[in-house]
Amino acid sequence: MENLAKTNSFIIMEHISKYLTKDIKLSCYEDKLFKSDLIFEDHMLVWFISGETKIIQAESTFSFKAGDIFLIPRNELATIINYPKNGLPHKTVVMHLSTERLKKFYEKTDHNKKTPSQQKIYLFSNHPLLESCLTSLIPYFEVESEFPESLATLKIEEAINILRLINPSVDSVLANFDVPGKIDLVDFMQRNFMFNMSLEKLSYLTGRSLSTFNRDFKKLFNTTPQKWLTDKRLALAYYHLAKKKKKPTEIYLEVGFEDLSHFSFIFKKKYGFSPSQLPMNS
Fold first, then answer.
1. What is the DSSP string of the chain?
2. CA 176, 23, 57 angle in degrees (round to 5)?
3. For residue range 12-67, what is the model confidence (pLDDT) as tens digits?
4. Contact 118, 59 (CB under 8 A)
5. pLDDT reading at 2 higher than 80
């Protein structure tokens, strides 16, 4: 099972995952598009063999293509949209850099114990050392026998050492084992309302129990989280449609909706007209 929290996917499609171990897999999407709002519980090192991915975070949007390698930190909300490209499937090799494994690594490794930096996505496009490390895994996916855990540990530690060599500042992310502390709820929700995460996960990310999250939310926003989230997503959709002149099919996924017909239904219910029928003077 994948080590992440996620919402329902946009399209049910042919998805094939081959696991060497629970921390190393080859992932392949054969269909047109896959979209998910998620938060990784592990740091994820991803190498693109084919296809494209768009990752949308609160303040940044990233696009990745064949040959790109990136590291996405744990506990970061994101919308991820995977696309096949040029007749090829969306295909990646993924390493989970788990907290348990990283703790063992850093127990025996000298590193600068500086204040954790801001969590961010690290991009290592076509880096020969990382690409060589990840490419070396491909033949193992065709072997029927069990992949030894000792070899998996060697390959993952090789990848970690290469990451540290390329960018020493990555220690401040990989060696940070803190759990989310209590943060400003208004600021967090205003930046992350477009992500379809459970209230349990949102409460965890803001350093609260679910009951405390709901109580604080009601006090600060004077409404329920579900109603507030829907209204905020609809308002953002309206802005993109009316001011940016975008089409409903271009924006409904990115503003937090999973289904175009459902988006159109609740948009019309709120504004009195469908997304494709905005008044000319809007």
1. --SEEE---SS---EEEEEEETTEEEEEE-SS-EEEEEEESSEEEEEEEESEEEEE-SS-EEEE-TT-EEEE-TT-EEEEEEE-BTTB-EEEEEEEE-HHHHHHHHHTS----PPPPPP--EE-TT-HHHHHHHHTTGGGGG--SPPPHHHHHHHHHHHHHHHHHH-GGGHHHHT--PPPPP--HHHHHHHHTTS---HHHHHHHTT--HHHHHHHHHHHHSS-HHHHHHHHHHHHHHHHHHTS---HHHHTTTTT-S-HHHHHHHHHHHHSS-GGG--TT-
2. 55
3. 345 678 899 999 999 887 766 777 877 888 999 999 999 999 888 877 888 999 99
4. no
5. no
Same fold, 4-174 and 185-277: no
Classify domain 185-277 at the CATH topology level.
Arc Repressor Mutant, subunit A (1.10.10)
- CATH of span 4-174: 2.60.120.280
Contact between 172 and 114 under an 8 Å Cβ cutoff? The reply is: yes
Would you kindly state where each structural domain of the chain is located, as residue ranges?
4-174, 185-277
pLDDT at 13: 46
What is the phi-psi region of residue 95: left when phi exceeds 0, alpha when psi lies from -120 to 50, beta otherwise? Answer: beta
- Fill in the amino acid letter for 121: I
The strand pairing partners of 64, in sequence order, are: 53
Cβ neighbours for 95, distance < 8 A, ≥ 6 positions apart: 23, 24, 44, 45, 46, 134, 155, 156, 159
Q: How far apart are CA 4 and CA 38, in angstroms?
A: 7
